[in-house]
Amino acid sequence: MSPSIAVATAERVVRQLRRDRRTLALVLVVPPALLALFKYVFEAQPATFERIGAPLVGLFPFILMFLVTSIAMLRERTGGTLERLMSLPLAKLDLLLGYGLAFAVVAALQATITSAVGFGLLDLDTEGAIWAVVAIAVANAVLGMALGLLLSAFATSEFQAVQFMPAVVFPQILLCGLLVPREAMPSVLEGISWFLPLTYAYDALARVTEGDHGGRLWLDVAIVLGSIVLALALGATTLRRRTP
Amino acid sequence: MSAVPGAVAVGIRDLHVVRGGRPILPGISLSVRRGTVTGLLGPSGSGKTTLMRSIVGVQVVAGGEVTVLGLPAGHPELRRRVAYVTQEPSVYADLTVHENLRYFARVMGTDARRIEEVLETVGLEEHADQIVETLSGGERSRASLAAALLGRPELLVLDEPTVGLDPILRRDLWKRFHDLAAKDTTLLVSTHVMDEAARCDDLVLLREGRIVATGTPQELLDRTAADDLEAVFITLAESA
């Protein structure tokens, strides 16, 4: 493992993103725009926006980074660059850390802009610290990146990779408690929700929003971090030096 | 590291490779002399790429032994000593040539000054700041080749490196290949162009996963009493 290779990889990934101005604009503009849309759609029910607004700030990076990573990694696989990297003195961890670092930076930027718009312009409020929302957003982005990286191994085309989003991300959003409290779900669904990482990511965000900095919050954060490590470890096994 | 006459860079014994349930290499043996340009000649589908991938150590093999520079193929130490250029240029299309080379140089821990040297070797100095996507097919291949040269590999495996290049550039590149071989680099180059075969020190004729013949171009011409290598290939393939 070599930190300088991980940093070089992160720089390369950010450079690629920066070159693609439209993607970068979408990554940075879409979340605050959607947040505004939520506010005005729920204008008649301000309490709903109050409840889900701040957690949404922290969930957007998960969704976007999942998508961006699964496509980026698929391109590495199909473009031959992954094969080239695997034949070079680069540890798999260097590549994973490089990607993680790059997307954490982009996610921090994204969450900062979304927070500024949400808390500054849209009158969103949180009992907890805004930086805590941003910090959890960054962790969620890395979680999304790790899952995207893992799932890209199962996609052979960009069409398939895009379809993984509704397949993997939507159920987690439905079950995490954002739209309906988990206690109100059928017990089978609530049971499933305990095994989905986004449940803990949402729970952490909801607690921060409510100003609850208790032990459960730290447990949530620990589970999110553990899920990242697990997804990255599984993702690393899909990076093969030898292929059939 | 001086050239040992007759030293072997690549030794292959009874290599079996199966892809998609089909035997691609049904057991071949071969050795490549160090410091030579060895041409791998055969029609498309003859197993050239699979053989090269096995030597580089990126191919899952079903059996046999591949020894590269004294180590088993795919050994971690070989990642610094062997470079492989695939048929499809494996560089980042959304970065410039220079950005690609800078990244690969950092991954390999190569001095950044080396970038200018390899750009000159492949004749891409004027395109260094161009985004790869906007390059022609031949220029992209050369960008990929440049990346492989960065680490001064002892064994350079090139899969059809001159496809789509104009004759002058092709001649220049082949001259570079021989310059490298003169400095004790071993080159294994696949091609299906017969006039390129004539420029190799050694030739390996491959057909349907089997070695039809090996030898220097002159030896093969003498053996078959043919006028050119095209005729040599046909004679040997039909008698095999």
Describe the structure.
The complex is a heterodimer of chains A (244) and B (240). Chain A is mostly helical and 244 residues long. Chain A has ten helices and no strands. In chain A, α2 (21-41) packs across α5 (92-121), α3 packs antiparallel against α7 (158-175) and α5 (92-121) crosses α6 (130-152). The radius of gyration of chain A is 18 Å and the shape is globular. The two termini of chain A are 26 Å apart. The model of chain A has no long low-confidence stretch (mean pLDDT 90). Chain B has 240 residues and is α/β, with parallel strands linked by helices. Chain B is built from eight helices and ten strands. Chain B has helices at residues 48-56, 97-108, 114-122, 137-149, 167-182, 194-197, 217-224, 229-239, and strands at residues 8-19, 22-33, 37-41, 63-68, 71-72, 82-85, 155-159, 186-191, 202-207, 210-215. In chain B, the strands form two sheets. A six-stranded mixed beta sheet of chain B has the order 6-7-8-3-9-10, sandwiched between helices. The longest helix of chain B is centred in the C-terminal third of the chain and has 16 residues, at 167-182.
Q: Would you spell out the secondary-structure blueprint of this structure?
A:
The complex is a heterodimer of chains A (244) and B (240).
Chain A lengths: L2 H17 L1 H21 L4 H33 L2 H6 L5 H30 L8 H23 L5 H18 L11 H7 L3 H13 L5 H23 L7
Chain B lengths: L7 E12 L2 E12 L3 E5 L6 H9 L6 E6 L2 E2 L9 E4 L11 H12 L5 H9 L14 H13 L5 E5 L7 H16 L3 E6 L2 H4 L4 E6 L2 E6 L1 H8 L4 H11 L1
Parallel strand pairs in B: 3-8, 3-9, 6-7, 7-8
Antiparallel strand pairs in B: 1-2, 1-4, 4-5, 9-10
Helix pairs in contact in B: 3-4, 7-8
